[in-house]
Amino acid sequence: MTSSARGSRRTESPGVGNAVMERLQEVGTLTRVIEQRLSGALGINATDLAALEHLATDGPLTAKDLADRLRVSTAASTHIVDRLERAGHVVRRPHATDRRKVLVEPVAESMERLFGHLHPLLHGVEGLVEALRPGDRDVVKAFLAGVVRIYTDTADSFPQG
Questions:
Q1: Taking 60 as the threshold, does the pLDDT of residue 18 lie above it?
Q2: Left (φ > 0), alpha (ψ -120 to 50) or beta: where does 131 sit?
């Protein structure tokens, strides 16, 4: 009896045979592998790693700002910050001008560890970007902006949990 006769039919994955789609799928898979291994190296989970990456790129943030970037509730963001603080990756500091606000600031040693692990990846990708001709760079930039828009729209279409 074939699998179709039993009622279970394998559907072909979108993008099969399309080299660009296949490379994007590989990047997605490898991104998850790197996140998992980097999280392990830093002793945190993937969500906490995402928060740490936002703090690394955007500087000190409030728990609300972090929640918005992570697309989680403020309560969830507070738990994330608590875990990162206990692990020694962030500190809470009073806002310089608004006494009601508290900023979450990454610890320098954690940033050094994070970027130490990521340096080969970041340096390698930067080299690929630098090697592109300006016109090609514009095409890649527009393509990736479209991918980001689609990812954002898809992420925003899911209910927040």
A1: yes
A2: alpha
